[in-house]
TrEMBL record:
Lineage: Bacteria, Pseudomonadati, Bacteroidota, Cytophagia, Cytophagales
Coiled coil: none
Highest taxon, organism lineage: Bacteria
A Pfam family matched in the record: SGL
Transmembrane segments: none
Domain SMP-30/Gluconolactonase/LRE-like region: 16-257
Organism of this sequence: Ravibacter arvi
Protein name per the record: SMP-30/gluconolactonase/LRE family protein
């Protein structure tokens, strides 16, 4: 693996999160304290696109609507493809269980939604089915954070921030999904837990898991078997999240969010990696 380029796309007053590539090919990202979702168009200009109450994780449905974790208000909301607010999808409760700090969310190919509730010790992963089914599929996680699905969509990967590890949830189980530890991540030399904190996740077409390691200024690449097969420096002391822009066997491009402090300043970079 070789990092061939890190290109800064945007600098902002606020720390950034929620990277996503739109159905229009534009790049989107959120600013928590800035309460704004931004769009980077083909011309490279960064412009406000929508507003939200501390928008964090972002996922785009096949119909072009954007769904957000509103971390401050404890809800999941959706916006139309032009940025207009659509509705509150979930307001603090899913499957009869309360949540307070939704952080990241992801859709599978059937339109089912998974999202995390980021609290210490008893963080959870929730499920909202395309048919309206609501349930908790994992709990007891010490700050459940980023999510990613395996290419087959039979395994859900969860970043356990204060455990400094990535969990694998087997979705093929008929009853409660089974959970195992996929990988323990490198530790910061300071031994300060805040120097670790895996955050956003993404999987490539080969099934590798790419981990934004918040306190390590790095992205780690984990094999489907749990081995760390590569790392690179993002240039962002706080590396929050990542999304694939292009994904071929020999070349990967990643949209990476984060910044230099919280609540800011923040930045968005585009990393090109050759394999």
């Amino acid at each position: 693996m070789k990092l061939t380029e890190i290109k800064k796309l945007a600098e902002l007053d606020f720390y950034t999160e929620g990277p996503a590539v739109g159905t229009d090919g534009a790049f989107y990202f959120t600013t928590l304290s800035g309460r704004t979702v931004f769009r980077i168009g083909a011309d490279g200009k960064t412009e406000p696109w929508a507003e939200g109450a501390c928008p964090n994780g972002q996922a785009i449905r096949a119909d072009g609507t954007h769904w957000f974790c509103e971390s401050r208000d404890g809800r999941i909301s959706s916006h139309h493809s032009d940025g207009r607010f659509e509705k509150v999808v979930l307001d603090g409760v899913c499957g009869g269980v309360g949540f307070s700090t939704p952080n990241d969310l992801i859709f599978d190919s059937a339109g089912n939604l998974y999202f995390t509730d980021s609290i210490r010790e008893n963080g959870k992963v929730f499920f909202l089915g395309a048919d309206g089914t609501e349930k908790v599929i994992a709990d007891g996680i010490d700050y459940a954070n980023g999510l990613a699905l395996s290419p087959s969509e039979t395994t859900l990967y969860v970043a356990e921030s204060y455990g400094n590890r990535v969990l694998a949830v087997d979705l093929s189980a008929n009853a409660q999904p089974r959970r195992t530890v996929l990988a323990n991540l490198p530790k910061h030399p300071s031994n300060d837990p805040v120097g670790n904190l895996p955050d956003g996740l993404a999987t490539d077409n080969e099934g590798r898991i790419w981990v934004a390691h918040y306190g390590m200024q790095a992205v780690h690449i984990i094999s489907p078997g749990g081995a760390c097969v590569g790392s690179f420096d993002t240039g962002l002391p706080l590396t929050s999240n990542l999304a694939f822009v292009s994904d071929t066997p020999r070349l990967k491009q990643l949209l990476i969010t984060g910044g230099f402090g919280e609540p800011g300043p923040g930045a968005v970079v585009l990393a090109t990696i050759s394999l």
